[in-house]
Specification:
Immunoglobulin-like; single chain; about 200 residues
Length: about 200
Amino acid sequence: MASAAGRRPRAVTLTAGARPDGPVERDIVLGGAGRLRGTVTTLDGTPVEDAAVTLTDARGEVVAAVRTGPGGGYLLTGLLDGDYTLTACAPGLGPTALPVGVRAEDETWQDVGLAGGGVVCGTVRARDGRPVEDARVSLLDTAGNTLGTLTTGADGVFRFPDLAAGAYTVIASGYPPVAAALQVTGGARTTRDVRLAHGG
């Protein structure tokens, strides 16, 4: 077993007498002592609690992972010297990936800002303005792919979160279907009511 201050200890197994012509040699590599610390916030500076923070190496393998605390802070320890990719994500917010260099025996500080994913929401209403329950609402991208489908409750409300900026189409049916085109900008909330009418 080998250990050193600030490094992860390691044990290896050796077999005595494996080489009768000389001593048995074995190098032991101890985990690094580098530390990576920072805060995950929204772009306006609000701390993001319970965000997933992941550190991957140049081969894409996960080296460390942790979730942020109430103040949005995170701490990754026992890191080897090298260059990594730091990724943070949280529900309702777009993921962010940053390159970061870690040096052994040092503490590196890297804050991460998460941009809010776009949200499309609204209410399905009948011609007289009443909310429509059990209306089927679908969200399509510009290629016509269905990104999500839901059924409205008694309030007629629909909501599609975590959208990238771009053009979308909302289709509501329950009466004859109605389509509404809209544009989503990064991190913005786009509200669009859809009014349905009886075919007769």
